[in-house]
Amino acid sequence: MHQLILRRSCGLGFSRSKHCQIVFTRDAFTAKLMNQQGLSKAIFAGYPIMDVLTPTGKDLGLIPDRPMIALLPGSRLPEACQNLGLQLDLAVEISQCFAPSPVQFCAALVPSMMPEHILRSIATQHNWQYLGNGKLHDPLSNSTVFCHGDAFPDILAQCNLSIGMAGTAVEQAVGLGKPVIQIAGRGPQFTYRFAEAQMRLLGESVQTIGTVAATPEILRSTALRVKSTLQDRDYLQTCQQNGLERVGRSGGSERISDRLATYLSKKE
Fold it and tell me: pTM for this structure?
């Protein structure tokens, strides 16, 4: 019996089994590292999560030529709702930091967060207004957040930077060459420990501000970092290259399938 493994991570002992024929890694760096450790069967053919990011052309309600920041609060409720509230607080700080130059925000939400009573509750808790159709507004800072439950690829494609409090969504943003700034929440998933591990995994594209659940001081520091990041053209170019190295291009599913087909045809 032969084994083929496709994993985000793979124990070296398991990979060294005589039954294991191929190890598909999640990135080129991991394949190179495993090869250096004597595991020539480890290859990187692509990361399938990048194959579901084709924009649909959905109208996000954006104003042309105005920077857009994507809010990625995660997918697990109720934590994602708490994270979105924290990101609304951050959006106020960012808007004040950029003033008088306006910025705009899009929140990529799971559909279960889109019902009016949920968005209205989150808005009210953070002194925002719910204007209907997924639109949130803070009158004091004149901040507006457009919430969408069906436009993740479009939001990532059009954003200039992402505020990440998620796992796979952050990896996908990095793969598209987007800079990601993380703040820690109260968890249980997206804590500083998770954010720090993700920063090590994804390299230069990801910056984590603070080492505890975000405080008002951390939010102010984050807003300043957002502004300086968007003004750093050299860094933004670095994110493009880092995304290719750490995550890779789309088409991974097909390349893995081709490898498997080639391997299996030799066994017939």
Answer: 0.88
In the chain, the domains with their CATH numbers are 3-47+249-267 (no CATH), 68-246 (3.40.50.2000)
Distance CA 216, CA 162 (A): 19
Q: Which residues contact 139 (CB under 8 A, 6 or more apart)?
A: 129
- Pick from 77, 151, 159: which is nearest to 121 by CA? 77
- Provide the residue type at 150 as one letter: D
Strand partners, 104: 68
Strand 143-148: give its sheet, edge to edge.
129-132, 135-138, 143-148, 104-108, 68-72, 161-164, 180-183, 206-209
Q: What pLDDT digit, counting tens, does each position of 153-199 carry? A: 999 999 999 999 999 999 999 999 999 999 999 999 999 999 999 99
d(CA 148, CA 73): 12
**CB half-sphere exposure, 25, CA atoms < 13 A:** 22
- Residues near 215 by beta carbon (within 8 Å), at least 6 away in sequence: none
Structure token digits, residue 220 = 């102010």
Cis omega (within 30 of 0) for bond into 78 = yes
The Cβ of residue 164 has, within 10 Å, a number of other Cβ atoms equal to: 32
| SS3 assignment, position 82 | helix
Closest by CA position to 34, among listed 43, 47, 45, 21: 43
> Residue 48 carries which DSSP code?
G
CA distance linking residue 268 with residue 262, whole number of Å: 10
**CA gap 97, 244 in Å, rounded:** 31
Task: Kindly report, residue by residue over 216-260, the tens digit of the pLDDT.
Answer: 999 999 999 999 999 999 999 999 999 998 888 877 788 888 877
Q: Which two tokens stand for residue 76?
A: 């697990």
